[in-house]
Design goal:
The complex is a heterodimer of chains A (about 375) and B (about 625). With about 375 residues, chain A is mainly alpha-helical. Chain A contains 14 helices and 3 strands. Chain A has one domain. In chain A, strands 1-2-3 form a 3-stranded antiparallel sheet. In chain A, a hairpin with a 4-residue loop joins strand 2 and strand 3. The longest helix of chain A is centred in the C-terminal third of the chain and has 34 residues. Chain B contains 24 helices and 21 strands. In chain B, the strands form 8 sheets. A 5-stranded antiparallel sheet of chain B has the order 12-11-21-20-19. In chain B, strands 1-8-9 form a 3-stranded antiparallel sheet. In chain B, strands 4-3-5 form a 3-stranded antiparallel sheet. Chain B is an alpha+beta fold. Chain B has a domain of about 80 residues: Penicillin-binding protein 2a (Domain 2). Chain B is elongated and about 140 Å long. Classes of the chains: A mainly alpha (about 375), B alpha+beta (about 625). Chains A and B meet through helix 8, helix 11, helix 12 and helix 13 of A and helix 1 and helix 2 of B.
């Protein structure tokens, strides 16, 4: 199925780092959810482990298909994704105050997680189809913005799922910027943006859910209500800080297992890790992420064609923003937005979509040299 | 585009670097601080109070016990601090929300002791109500606290003392450094003096809790050390009789074992109920006690001094006999008074006729002692009074003891800067004027007279391992026998002033005293004379010595003597019953049941009574 000459260029190191991260994830989920009173160990870590298996299969599946086919089918998947998002709003399962899940009976998943991939696929095709080495004009931007961003963003915000919309927005903007935008437009956008801040800000603020507003208030000043909104941020900082340089040791952390830290196996899993492994462990973790991201940029730079370049870029930007928003949030540098830590946070759909994205990246990297069939 | 991709990569690298700096700041620079906060999150220190030692009477009857009471407290960090929660909590506890706020504010900032007491001594109803609503107030908890119950209420309240909150002075005292701020500690009497022995050492338990306050494990434990029991020299029965006999009269009764110096009973009336204090006295009760003109907290047995009246004639007689100023045969003629500069009256207007020492004591003839006093002189009287323990504190463990006054020429020069007059000698000879003594001093004096001149260091802690003999006053046996036989006559002979003390059970010797209250409206109660009676029994082999004092009680023979008799009889009735009991094979030590465990007190006693060490 896959040419042996192509296989020769397979980047094992990317897969290896991602797998290590995933296993660290399983370990940390185990630690975060380990029982301290007489209750049974929750099975999160096992489920996550099975999901790694599923993700690996999908990863290899993705790798085996030429990325140009993947980009070609982008529009179809994008359309399919929009349909799924509409179905979620109509028939989705509610959980934690949001309607994000689709229940297929044997498993349930979050279509918005996959939608990010569909978006990258479709948008990469769109950008690469444009004839010029694109210096984008205003008309193009408005059209693109409406189709690729505004429509799905509205649907996802309805769930509501601010985190995914944020990621989508950042990936969208950074892909456009890398593709190239006229300087005049960038300047204009910034000026219009600044002028409209009070007005748009008001509309946005009014459109936010109460808990979202609170998160922003808490970010600005966590001590406003240490028991309420600021609690997450405070406990997150306490967990990270109490790890010190070398950490308390695996399974020795107290903040997670004793439940002082909310969302300790999902969005706030990094504090659990940082408490147990300290600054030393966190650096290693950071380096692994940085490796994947820089490898991604390298792939985008060296891709055989524009399609590959945009695909790699989209995926890389996605990983970058996941990491930046998640870690920034746990460090108290970014408002609390429900964004998981890629490969590590508990969540099957997210893990699968991350491996699929990694598959696309590996795919592009593997096929970076022109071959003739 | 390649350039723009690189730009993206640089931006990402920059952000990574910023994150690393932030991480360094949180984990390395502020790591220690956050570690403390994390520990405070999960660790709670719980105090394990040490059961306070029980106080027993000399026959191993418990006088107090420990009972559980309920306090409500809150884990400061867990309670939301908004005013709505506070006002609701105030409603639940019946407290002012402002007060709760203040208490929380004042609380210790020690992260390991985040618990703040809100209210103590809850009723069972309150406990039920709080338990039912606890779920609405995170961090609220009801604690079981050990409190003190005084089994016999007012009985021996001045001797046993009471528990009260740590006072400001005690808070500074290193002896109390290990006592928590909210604790109740001994404040008076045995509870106060022997607090260090009784209170033991509180233990501590450090537990780990999760975010919802469930205990997940025990981290460490420092076991408590039980307080040690103590045993008093007080005899419950004699004490009760003394208080009962005093009734609502103002006064004091002291009973001493003349062979050991042990205080068998020490009653002061009016008294107070220490149970009011043990649970945290309320304002009204405290005001009532403090503003009572009769001063119920005052232990009149040692903290008040009065002219001893005719009971002092014992001292005058001993001084005169020892100094050879008189003999058994010396007579004096009493015609109701004697003129020395002015008229000195005898209490009996028509006089006693010609009397020798024996009858002079029996009938308490004032004129005889005016004459005797004049012969022996004030300074010799003062010498013997001092030798018999008057004029200086006896050294009993209890606080605030008065020393009394033994006047002499030098004393008057020193304190009043005046010359001594002969008339004052006459007054002093019959126990009036400047001379004064506490009821306890008089009891010790009569005990020494009855036991051959032995003065003991008085004590309320039963301790058979030590000899408490203070000194032996050098008095010729003849002198003592003469005085003693006269004292027996006071009670048993016709015309004796103390006939009201005559008993069918036991032979009693004693001396009445009526101390004049000078310069008042004689009809009103407050200016009636003070009544005294000092006594010992049995005459042949004294086992109990008693002093009774009744403020404004009138004549000693009428008011004080019957009380002394009742106390002495109570003591011997109990002895007889005990002997019956032990003949049946039950020694009182075994039947009392409670068991007394605090015998290893030697060192602690010498720590507490520093001046007692030399006599051990």
């Amino acid at each position: 199925m896959v040419d042996r000459r192509i296989l020769k260029n397979f980047d094992w190191s990317l897969l290896f780092v991602a797998l290590v991260l995933s296993l660290i994830g399983v370990m940390t989920i185990y630690s975060a959810t380990r029982p301290v009173v007489n209750v049974e160990q929750q099975s999160f870590y096992l489920k996550q482990f099975y999901w790694i298996g599923i993700s690996l299969i999908c990863f290899f599946l993705i790798v085996s298909i030429d990325y140009r086919w993947i980009a070609r089918s982008g529009y179809i998947f994008f359309g399919f994704g929009i349909v799924l998002l509409i179905i979620v709003l109509i028939a989705g399962k509610r959980g934690l105050g949001a309607q994000r899940w689709l229940d297929l009976g044997f498993l349930s998943f979050q279509p918005s997680e996959f939608f990010k991939i569909f978006f990258i696929m479709a948008f990469s095709r769109y950008l690469s189809d444009m004839k010029q080495e694109a210096i984008l004009g205003l008309k193009d931007l408005l059209k693109m913005g409406f189709i690729f961003f505004i429509i799905p963003a509205v649907l996802i915000l309805k769930q509501p799922n601010l985190g995914t919309v944020m990621i989508l927005l950042f990936v969208f903007v950074s892909m456009i910027m890398t593709a190239g935008v006229r300087k005049k437009i960038v300047v204009m956008t910034i000026i219009i943006g600044l002028i409209s801040v009070p007005f748009v800000g008001n509309v946005l603020w009014g459109g936010l859910k109460e808990y979202q507003k609170n998160r922003i208030v808490a970010f600005v000043n966590p001590s406003v209500d240490p028991r309420g909104v600021g609690y997450n941020i405070n406990q997150s900082k306490v967990s990270i800080g109490s790890g010190g340089f070398f950490g308390k040791g695996y399974l020795k952390g107290t903040q997670g297992a004793l439940r002082f830290l909310p969302e300790r196996h999902t969005d706030f899993i990094f504090p659990v890790f940082a408490e147990e492994w300290g600054f030393a462990g966190s650096i290693v973790l950071f380096i692994m992420y940085l490796f994947i991201i820089l490898r991604g940029f390298d792939t985008a730079r060296r891709a055989r064609d524009l399609t590959g370049s945009f695909l790699a870029m989209g995926v890389t930007f996605m990983f970058s923003f996941y990491f930046i928003i998640n870690i920034g949030m746990t460090l108290g540098m970014v408002p609390v937005v429900g964004v998981p830590m890629p490969f590590i946070s508990y969540g099957g759909t997210a893990l699968l979509s991350n491996f699929i994205a990694l598959g696309i990246l590996t795919n592009v990297r593997m096929r970076r040299f022109a071959l003739f069939y | 585009m390649e350039r723009r991709i690189l730009t993206g990569a640089y931006i990402v690298i920059t952000i990574f670097a910023v994150f690393l700096l932030r991480l360094w700041y949180l984990q390395v620079i502020k790591g220690g601080e956050y570690k403390k906060i994390a520990e405070r999150n999960r660790l709670r220190a719980i105090e394990i109070p040490a059961p306070r030692g029980i106080i027993y009477d000399r026959n191993n009857n418990a006088l107090v016990r420990n009972i559980p009471t309920f306090d409500v407290s809150v884990v400061k960090e867990d309670l939301p601090s908004d005013s709505e929660t506070l006002s609701e909590l105030g409603r639940l506890l019946g407290l002012n929300p402002e007060e709760i706020k203040n208490r929380l504010k004042r609380a210790s900032s020690n992260p390991f002791e985040p618990v703040v007491k809100l209210k103590q001594n809850l009723s069972l109803e309150e406990v039920a109500r709080i338990e039912a609503h606890k779920i609405d107030f995170p961090g609220l908890q009801v604690d079981v606290v050990v409190s003190r119950e005084y089994l016999y209420g007012r009985l021996a309240s001045h001797i046993i003392g009471y528990l009260g909150r740590l006072t400001l002075n005690q808070a500074k005292d290193p002896d109390y450094s290990d006592v928590p701020k909210e604790a109740f500690i001994g404040q008076m009497g045995a509870e106060g003096i022997y607090d260090k022995i009784l209170r033991g050492v509180a233990g501590k338990k450090i537990i780990e809790v999760d975010a919802v306050g469930r205990v997940t494990k025990l981290i460490g434990m420092q076991p408590h050390i039980n307080g040690e029991d103590i045993r008093l020299t007080i005899d419950r029965t004699v004490q009760a009789e003394a208080e009962y006999a005093l009734g609502d009269k103002t006064g004091a009764v002291v009973a001493i074992d003349p062979n050991t110096g042990e205080i068998l009973a020490m009653a002061s009336s009016p008294s107070f109920d220490p149970n009011l204090f043990a649970k945290g006295i309320n304002y009204t009760d405290w005001e009532n006690i403090i503003n009572d003109s009769q001063k119920p907290l005052l232990n009149r047995a040692i903290q008040s001094q009065y002219p001893p009246g005719s009971t002092f004639k014992i001292v005058t007689a001993i001084a005169a006999l020892e100094e050879g100023a008189i003999t058994e045969e010396t007579t004096a003629h009493c015609s109701g008074g004697i003129f020395v500069g002015r008229l000195f009256k005898c209490w009996r207007g028509k006089g006693h006729g010609t009397v020798r020492l024996h009858r002079a004591i029996v009938e308490s003839c004032d004129v005889y002692f005016y004459e005797t006093g004049r012969k022996v002189g004030i300074d010799k009287i003062a010498e013997y009074a001092s030798a018999l323990g008057l004029g200086k504190p006896t050294g009993i463990e209890l606080d605030g003891e008065k020393s009394g006054i033994v006047p002499s020429t030098s004393w008057k020069l020193r304190t009043l800067k005046q010359q001594w007059f002969m008339g004052e000698t006459l007054n002093t000879a019959i126990g009036q004027g400047y001379v004064s003594a506490t009821p306890h001093q008089m009891a010790r004096l009569i005990a020494a007279v009855s036991n051959g001149g032995k003065l003991y260091k008085p004590h309320i802690l039963k301790d058979s391992e030590h000899d408490y003999l203070d000194k032996v006053v050098e008095i010729k046996p003849d002198t003592l026998n003469l005085v003693k036989s006269a004292l027996v006559g006071v009670v048993s002979e016709n015309g004796g002033t103390g006939h009201a003390a005559r008993s069918n059970i036991v032979s009693i010797g004693g001396k009445t005293g009526t101390a004049q209250v000078i310069g008042g409206d004689r009809a009103s109660r407050n200016f009636k004379d003070h009544a005294w009676f000092v006594a010992f029994a049995p005459v042949e082999n004294p086992q109990i010595a008693v002093a009774v004092f009744v403020e404004h009680g009138g004549h000693g023979g009428a008011t004080a003597a019957p009380i002394a008799k009742r106390v002495i009889e109570a003591y011997f009735k109990e002895k007889i019953e005990d002997e019956k009991g032990s003949r049946l094979g039950e020694s009182p030590e075994e039947t009392s049941g409670q068991g007394f465990k605090g015998r290893k007190l030697k060192n602690q006693i010498s720590k507490i009574i520093p001046n007692s060490r030399d006599t051990f």
